[in-house]
Description:
- By secondary structure, the chain is α/β, with parallel strands linked by helices.
- Helices cover 33% and strands 22% of the residues.
- It contains six helices and eleven strands.
- A seven-stranded mixed beta sheet has the order 5-4-1-6-10-7-11, with helices on both faces. The protein has a two-stranded antiparallel ribbon with strand order 2-3.
- The protein binds cytidine-5'-triphosphate and magnesium ion (MG).
- Residues 8-15, 21-22, 49, 67-71, 74, 91-93, 200, 202 line the site of cytidine-5'-triphosphate.
- Cytidine-5'-triphosphate is lined by residues 8-15, 21-22, 49, 67-71, 74, 91-93, 200, 202.
Amino acid sequence: xxxxALIPAAGSGSRLGQGPKAYVEVGGLSLLARSVAALRAHVxxxxxxxxxxxxxxxxxxxxxxxxGVTRQExxxxxxxxxxxxxxxxxxxxxxxxxxxxxxxxxxxATQHGAATAALPVADTLVAQHPDGERGALWGQLxxxxxxxxxxxxxxxxxxxxxxxxxxxxxxGIQATDDAGLVARLGLSVALVPGDARLFxxxxxxxxxxxxxxxxxxxxxxxxxx
Length: 225
Ligand code: CTP
Ligand code: MG
């Protein structure tokens, strides 16, 4: 079967505040270059959705298309750009991708049609009091038992994900991930154990963490060669 890695990288990075996030460098490489390099060996083609009017970061070569206004729109355009049977969707903003997780997501997607990396929630969950001054409400939310925090990569039968996007667009639904669009059709999405290092670089604190991890990560990758 043919497999395409589809990388949404067209966001503006507003929470990070350093311009389009995919171009931000961590340990001498852009977030996008790290994500592309991590997936390339597992797939037949890589396609990247970039911000309107921008080119790939210097030194990186990949097929690219112009992204949309939302992540969902960027993924929808990426889906239209490939004919692969299986698609692996991965946020450019998650630069550290363990190869075992990619393999496990691909295997589960091939078997079940839809799969995502995810981690069991470790922290206690609370809801902020509607009157923000008054702290939070304990015990109002379900316990963390059985709750997972969803990551990428996510893998799908391409025809299935196309249909999920079509139905979401028709219903006017905007979601922050693709597994959610498949789940709302009543289909199950396999949960594959992710990895703490697959965190998404979203805030300045995440960037500091990524910059601290990069040299350790890069030396592990070199060792494994
Ligand atoms: N993304 C995209 N197209 C968009 C919005 C987001 O391809 N219109 C991509 C981002 O580039 C990122 C991934 O989706 O790789 C996850 O999005 P997020 O972390 O929210 O990135 P940004 O939207 O860039 O950040 P922010 O929400 O803080 O502006
Ligand atoms: Mg965003």
